[in-house]
Specification:
globular; 6 strands; 5 helices; ph1033 like fold; 6-stranded mixed β-sheet; about 25% helix
């Protein structure tokens, strides 16, 4: 299994929106960055990810699971863009803020700490464990 981080703005797609989709989940569409798209192409069903709110919250608030591999993004007619489908697995007990990640020496190489603009990011297994620990999971 691989681990990822999916960034969203609460005004566009909130954790509550994701949870409300239940087992059917939702397409992680609208991504228009080649690097992020290429990461989604690597995802497999069962991979897990952090759901991260990127505006004022700047925090991991939940865990999601990939339920459909990369497929055409229906929000555009441009065939270059693809997306995966994800479903909510559980909320974290305590949100893990960007400031907490930056202050944690074990996360100094995490993509989130060094590239806050990328909307889909890989997370190493070691980073996954640290963030889960900080989140009370």
């Amino acid at each position: 299994m691989a681990y990822w981080l999916f960034k969203s703005e609460v005004s566009t797609w909130s954790w509550d929106d994701q949870v409300a989709k239940g087992e059917v989940g939702e397409a992680w569409d609208g991504v228009r960055n080649y690097q992020a798209r290429n990461m989604m192409r690597q995802m497999k069903i069962g991979d897990q990810g952090f759901f991260y709110l990127s505006q004022k919250e700047k925090a991991v608030v939940g865990i999601v699971e990939v339920i459909a591999t990369a497929h055409p993004d229906t929000t555009t007619d441009d065939p270059r863009w693809e997306c995966v489908d994800i479903k909510a697995v559980r909320a974290v007990k305590m949100p893990v803020t960007l400031a907490m990640c930056k202050a944690e020496p074990r996360l100094e190489n995490m993509v989130l700490v060094n590239n806050t603009r990328l909307s889909v990011q890989p997370v190493t297994e070691a980073e996954w464990q640290v963030v889960c620990e900080l989140a009370g999971l």
